[in-house]
Amino acid sequence: MNVPSSISKVAVIGLGNIATRHRRNLKALYPNVTLLAMSASGRIPEEAISDCDGIVGSIDELIAQRVQLVIVASPAPFHARHAIALLEANIPVLIEKPLATTSEDCQAICKAAERSGTPVAVGYCLRYLSSALQIKALFEQGILGELYHAHIEIGQYLPDWRPSKDYRECVSARPELGGGALLELSHELDYSQWLLGPLAVQHAILRSSHELGLEVEDSADVMSTTQSGAVVTIHLDFLQRQAYRRCRFVGQLGALEWDLIGNAIYFTDGEGRRALYSEPEWDKNQMYLEMVRDFVAATQHQTNQAITLQEASLSVSLIEKIKQQAQPKAVS
Fold this sequence. Notes:
Blueprint: E1 9-13, H1 17-29, E2 34-38, E3 54-55, H2 59-64, E4 69-72, H3 79-88, E5 93-96, H4 103-116, E6 120-123, H5 130-141, E7 147-155, H6 181-184, H7 187-196, E8 200-209, E9 219-225, E10 231-237, E11 244-251, E12 254-259, E13 264-269, E14 272-278, H8 285-299, H9 309-325, E15 329-331
Helix pairs in contact: 1-8, 3-4, 4-9, 7-9
């Protein structure tokens, strides 16, 4: 198995924003590393990529280069194709979220990893947010007692995500590239099950507004239940002009509010509302850095919190169940 004792040669597949972040972070963490880049399609871009040491045109070239690990940051429909070939070559792989767009692809990746025994993890970076670690600890301490209900919401105006690019051409807007609110905003589906356990979908509504004119859902509303019977509602959208990302969990002993953008946690009980954690200036790039460090630890069989294929598959399975429950609807 190609498990690195020291990091000297790595690669990132994909040339989008998240791939660029990963290349820069790898260079920051390992300044002397040889870093290779590959586009999702294998094309060699005409423009130079300043933050890498070389560009390759295929997975076979990466394997021939004897890279020690690869971050797969291509569009989600390509994850299985890229990851399976690398795993079969015993090259550890960190796959950006979501793991894939279908359960079939998830199962194929899982089987390849099982056959090869090669380390693999999935890039749900929000689990490394400092307030996420705090709220996970609070749940494990039982701060709420019995959970009654929860509301999880994220919204951000899609044209504002990448102002220099036509939003209709971005991955988020294109069904063939794994777009739509459910797949693109699947962090919320991941951490809801990380905190609350498996969710059973009871009702769902998917909508596409005339404003954005997308062929994918730009808004999703899901009503689900936990194994203990608590009701969990989840709202995802590409429409809110001011970015919004918050959760509220109500239980027997009080209510927890988690502000992910403000990186803060509040608790309300009979004595009032108070802050349990607040670090609004915390550098959110630390999430991505820690995720890579954690994955490297996993490749070296050290203690880690890397997100497993089984965990990430739960989110894809949940998305499929949501889509089965709901037919997309257009709204004005």
